[in-house]
Design goal:
heterodimer, A: 366 residues, alpha+beta, 3-stranded antiparallel β-sheet, 7 helices, 16 strands, 37% strand, B: 256 residues, alpha/beta, 5-stranded mixed β-sheet, 6 strands, 18% strand
Chain lengths: 366, 256
């Protein structure tokens, strides 16, 4: 029976191939042979098609066998089994997994069936940061947080470090924005007897066009939106045309949130930025307040890209903490636990220092 | 200006009418004829004793009118013209029987000893009820006694009545400082806890704006209207008050 997955193996020595961060080629870690991405694509195209067909057949068979057994129909839809082409083990992954690695032999595995019926990504930002970079960046991230529990660094252990290509929609838009602001100019005149404050009220209208390029919105339900927005920005100078070869050795998900569903988040960000741009031109006033705004999208274009993210999971006091690192820029985001005693003592100490200073200042003013 | 000049002239004439022949204005002037001659003499005697004891000048005047001036200006002028040369300052009480208003005025030196906030209020409590009751002798006497008490307090404690001694604990300031420090502590706590996470929604898309693509099609500022707020300017601004018509005067008054 044909394999339902494809392992990218070195044509020279048969070892697993991995795309190395920072390189434009796929390199065999074992024999050192370098392959062009296009050459690897060519080589494994037939294998992918065969694997996809095999997966279809296997899937149908699996569905029949499992019908009415311990899996509900929803679970059966979400979970799928594939055979590792290297060791023959059965890989179970969810419906969105495009690339993974075998838990038994560590073989990087693509699941071409998952590419069917879905859009092929237009671009990919290749991983630049390695696992060692991610661990070092996480340790650096811990520093400078005064409320971090003293034993957090010592007792905390990294449970999992996973590199993942996350599906992102990149929104291009050209917009026309117009807004009205209420602006105030203050003029104070001091006479011997009184202080006269003249407040002149203006209506300021602004209208302009502007263009936004590649606003990223993640297309994965699994990834928290706040985390994905926090690891921005990306350097699009390193964006390259998509090739499945870049996914070898990494986890990869396909999108499960469509571009249409994601567009509202991009639109809101565009609207806020457009208003900020217009407001920044309301100058030489003492106070400016937005009264009304309208943003019209003249041109909207969406592209689909795979973006590199390191997911690091640690455990402290039996509670998991997830951190994410931008696999391109190395920016780490996450929420650290805080020591409740420190959270009480430090501010209390500050209050104790502040109190006499404030007392002196207030006594002087009263 | 002309109105002020004639008003001042009328006030001087009114006040000086009963003492036209005197070389120096007596402490008590009663052009409104509300006191008996013996009462005036007794008051003058007592006030002179107080003046000498504290090296200050005290004036009390009962008038029928202040000639169109406002009471603050009239009392300040009355002080400056006749009682401003005391070593430790001067204070006057001007009582207008025409509109039943009174006004006290202090010069800058007296303002340090009798503050507007506490000293003038103390004096009001001393004599205002006597004025309302029509007992003008008692009012003038209690005013003078009040000044004596306040001066004695200043000389004994080194600070004006109602003021803290240097270095003395101020419970009000301590309460305010404590509350502000606690608030500051909560603010610092929120800031420190907030710093433990850098996960947040992206509000805008400024990183993805092509700066050179921004073109303004309309930019119009239209003046709508103007709001004018006026508030009286406080003169002096010392710790002990002094907002009494400018010129370093202090004081205060009311109706009776």
């Amino acid at each position: 029976m044909a394999d339902s997955s494809v392992s990218y193996k070195c044509p020279n020595c048969g070892a697993p191939l991995s795309f190395m961060p920072g390189k434009k080629t796929v390199t065999c870690e074992y024999c050192g042979t370098e392959f062009e991405v296009s050459a690897i694509e060519e080589l494994f195209r037939d294998k992918q098609e065969t694997a996809a067909r095999a997966a279809e057949a296997q899937e149908a068979k699996w569905a029949t066998e499992d019908a009415g057994s311990e899996w509900t129909s929803d679970e059966a839809k979400a979970l799928h089994a594939f055979t590792c082409s290297s060791c023959g083990a059965e890989l179970v992954c969810d419906e969105n997994t495009m690339a993974t690695e075998c838990v038994y032999c560590g073989n990087p595995t693509m699941i071409p069936k998952r590419f069917d019926g879905m859009l092929k990504p237009d671009y990919v930002i290749p991983f630049k940061k390695t696992k060692a970079d991610a661990v070092a960046a996480l340790k650096e991230f811990y520093k400078g947080h005064m409320l971090l529990p003293s034993n957090f660094t010592a007792n905390n252990r990294v449970e999992a470090i996973q590199p993942m290509y996350v599906p992102f929609w990149l929104f291009d838009s050209k917009i026309t924005a117009q807004a009205e602001f209420r602006a105030e100019k203050h003029h104070v005149i001091t006479t011997p007897k009184e202080i006269i404050t003249e407040v002149s009220i203006f209506n300021c209208r602004r209208k302009g066009v502007m263009r936004f390029e590649r606003i990223p919105v993640d297309g994965s339900k699994k990834m928290e939106d706040t985390y994905m927005e926090s690891i921005e920005p990306f350097d699009y100078g390193e964006l390259v045309d998509f090739s499945a070869a870049y996914l070898t050795g990494y986890l990869a998900d396909k999108y499960d949130v469509t571009a249409e569903e994601s567009s509202a988040r991009a639109d809101k960000r565009v609207e806020n930025s457009a208003i900020e741009v217009l407001q920044s031109s309301v100058e030489n006033f003492d106070a400016v307040q937005l009264e009304d705004a309208a943003v019209v999208k003249d041109v909207g274009k969406v592209s689909y890209a795979m973006v590199p993210v390191w997911i690091l999971t640690t455990r402290y006091n039996d509670r998991p903490y997830t951190f994410m690192m931008n696999g391109q820029t190395g920016k780490v985001v996450g929420s650290l636990p805080y020591d409740k005693m420190k959270a009480f003592l430090y501010p209390a100490l500050c209050s104790l220092v502040l109190a006499p200073i404030l007392y002196f200042l207030i006594s002087f003013m009263l | 200006m002309i109105k002020k000049f004639f008003g001042l002239l009328a006030l001087i004439l009114l006040i000086n009418f009963s003492a036209a022949s005197a070389a120096r204005l007596e402490p008590v002037t009663d052009s409104a004829k509300v006191l008996k001659a013996t009462e005036v003499e007794l008051l003058n005697q007592r006030i002179r004793e107080i003046e000498q004891a504290h090296k200050i000048k005290i004036g009390v005047a009962f008038v029928k009118s202040v000639g169109g001036l406002d009471m603050v200006t009239a009392s300040n002028d009355f002080l400056d013209e006749n009682f401003a040369n005391g070593k430790n300052g001067g204070i006057v009480l001007l009582v207008n029987m025409g509109n039943r208003k009174y006004e006290m005025s202090t010069d800058s030196r007296m303002l340090e000893r009798i503050t507007d906030t506490d000293g003038i209020s103390f004096l009001k409590d001393k004599f205002q009820s006597d004025l309302s009751a029509g007992d003008y002798y008692a009012a003038a006497e209690n005013f003078a006694e009040g000044v004596d008490e306040l001066m004695t307090y200043y000389e004994t404690n080194g600070v004006a009545y109602g003021q803290r001694k240097p270095g003395e604990f101020d419970p009000m300031a301590a309460t305010m400082a404590g509350l502000l420090a606690i608030l500051g502590g909560f603010g610092i706590r929120s800031m420190l806890i907030g710093a433990m996470s850098n996960v947040h929604h992206a509000r805008a898309a400024g990183d993805y704006l092509k700066k050179n693509s921004v073109k303004f099609l309309e930019s119009r500022d239209t003046f709508l209207f103007m709001n004018v707020q006026r508030r009286p300017r406080s003169s002096g601004g010392s710790r002990s008050g002094g907002g009494h018509g400018g010129g370093g005067h202090g004081g205060g008054g009311s109706s009776f």
